[in-house]
Design goal:
alpha/beta, Rossmann fold, Uridine Diphospho-n-acetylenolpyruvylglucosamine Reductase, domain 3, 2 domains, six-stranded mixed beta sheet, five-stranded antiparallel beta sheet, about 50% helix
Length: about 350
C-alpha cells in the first residue's frame, strides 16, 4: 500500500473537485462509481482522489482500463496501471481489451473513442455503476472549444464538454492539467506518458503544443481559462435555446409516417436560433445521413426568401413549402415515437 501523501494544494484541489461533483449529482453512500483510467496523469490523479473520497463517504470506487492495442506498450501499461489502482484501494479494477475498427468518418481517433465508450458502457452495466468518471481537465475543455472555433462547428461544439452527460461525469473540468501532474508527483505516482500526446499529426496535439502557447504569449495569460468560461456560458445559452426549440417542435411540428410538417406562420415568427434547431431536429428524426449549416440555411430560405422555387433535394430528405407548412420528406418509414 503506497504511503499516504501529505496534503498539498494540488491534492486538495483534485479531491475537492471530486467531492463537490458527487454532491452536485447525488452520489451518496452505498453508490458505486467507476473511473476510466488510462494510466496518464489526469486519470491517475482522478482515480486516486476518488478512492480517497470514496473511503470517507462510503462510496465504492472501481476502475476500468481500456486497452486499445494501438501501441506495442499499451498492454504492459494497462497491467501496471491496474496494479497501481489496486494498491490504492480501487475495487473492482478491470482491464478491457478492445478492437479498434476502421471508422467511416473521424479516422482512428473516432474509432478508438467508439470502442472505448462501448467498453465503459458495458463495464458500468456489469458493475451497476451510478457514474463512470472521465478525467477531462480545463485544458481539454479549452482545446475542444478552440478546435470548434477553428472548424466553425457552431454552438454545440463550442459548448465543450458537460460535467455530466448521462452515465458520464467529468469532475475535473475546472482543474488545470498542471494540477493533475502535481497531484501525481506529490502522491508518489508515476503516470504513463502517452507518446500520442506529442504526435503532431493530431489536431488536438497541435492546438495544445503550438496554438495555445502562441495565444498565451501574444494575448496574455489565462487563455485556457477564458475558453473554458466561454464554453460554460454558451452551454447555458444552448440549454435555453434547445428547450425553446423542443417546445416549438412539440406544438407546431407534425410527424407522419414519412414526413414532418412545420406550421409556416408560427415558424416564420420564431427566432432564427430556434428555427434552425427545429430544422436540425427534424432532419435527425428523418435520419438524414448528413447535414450541415448550409442545408439548414437552405431550408430556412423557403421561409424568408420564398419566390416559388422548386423543392430542395438534400441528402436523404426532400423539402418543400406548401401554403401552410414546410414539409420535410424521406423515403423511409419512421418508427413510432421517433420524435
Amino acid at each position: 500500500m503506497p504511503k499516504r501523501p501529505r496534503l498539498t494544494p494540488a491534492i486538495a484541489d483534485v479531491r475537492r473537485a471530486v467531492r463537490e461533483a458527487w454532491m452536485r449529482h447525488g452520489v451518496v453512500a452505498g453508490d458505486g462509481i467507476l473511473v476510466a483510467c488510462s494510466g496518464g496523469a489526469d486519470s491517475l490523479a482522478l482515480a486516486a482522489a476518488a478512492v480517497f473520497e470514496g473511503k470517507r463517504a462510503g462510496i465504492t470506487v472501481g476502475a476500468v482500463i481500456v486497452e486499445h492495442g494501438l501501441q506495442a506498450e499499451t498492454k504492459a501499461v494497462a497491467e501496471a496501471t491496474a496494479k497501481t489502482l489496486t494498491e490504492l484501494g480501487a475495487s473492482p479494477v478491470v482491464v478491457r481489451a478492445v478492437k479498434v475498427k476502421g471508422a467511416k468518418s473521424g479516422g482512428p481517433e473516432a474509432a478508438a473513442r467508439t470502442a472505448r465508450y462501448a467498453a465503459l458502457d458495458a463495464a458500468a452495466t456489469e458493475f451497476g455503476a451510478k457514474f463512470v468518471m472521465l478525467a477531462h481537465t480545463l485544458n481539454d475543455q479549452a482545446e475542444t472549444v478552440l478546435l470548434g472555433l477553428a472548424r466553425g462547428s457552431g454552438n454545440r461544439s463550442l459548448n465543450g464538454m458537460a460535467e455530466v452527460n448521462g452515465l458520464y461525469l467529468r469532475p475535473l473540468l475546472g482543474i488545470e492539467r498542471a494540477a493533475t501532474v502535481a497531484f501525481c508527483e506529490d502522491s508518489g505516482l508515476s503516470p504513463w506518458q502517452d507518446p500520442q500526446n506529442k504526435d503532431a499529426k493530431f489536431a488536438r496535439v497541435r492546438a495544445r503544443h503550438n496554438v495555445l502557447p502562441v495565444l498565451e504569449a501574444e494575448l496574455g495569460p489565462g487563455i485556457a481559462q477564458a475558453l473554458a468560461r466561454t464554453a460554460e456560458q454558451l452551454r447555458e445559452d444552448e440549454t435555453a435555446l434547445a428547450e425553446l426549440a423542443e417546445a416549438f417542435f412539440a406544438q407546431f411540428a407534425s410527424t407522419k409516417s414519412t414526413s414532418i410538417e412545420i406550421a409556416l406562420d408560427s415558424f416564420k415568427s420564431a427566432p432564427l436560433a430556434v428555427r434552425h434547431r427545429v430544422v436540425a431536429k427534424a432532419l435527425q428524426i428523418l435520419q438524414a445521413p448528413e447535414f450541415a449549416r448550409v442545408h439548414i440555411c437552405a431550408i430556412d430560405e423557403l421561409v424568408d426568401d420564398w419566390h416559388g422555387q422548386k423543392p430542395l433535394t438534400l441528402p436523404g430528405v426532400r423539402v418543400e413549402r406548401t401554403a401552410r407548412n414546410i414539409v420535410l420528406k424521406t423515403a423511409k418509414t419512421l418508427k413510432p415515437g421517433a420524435c
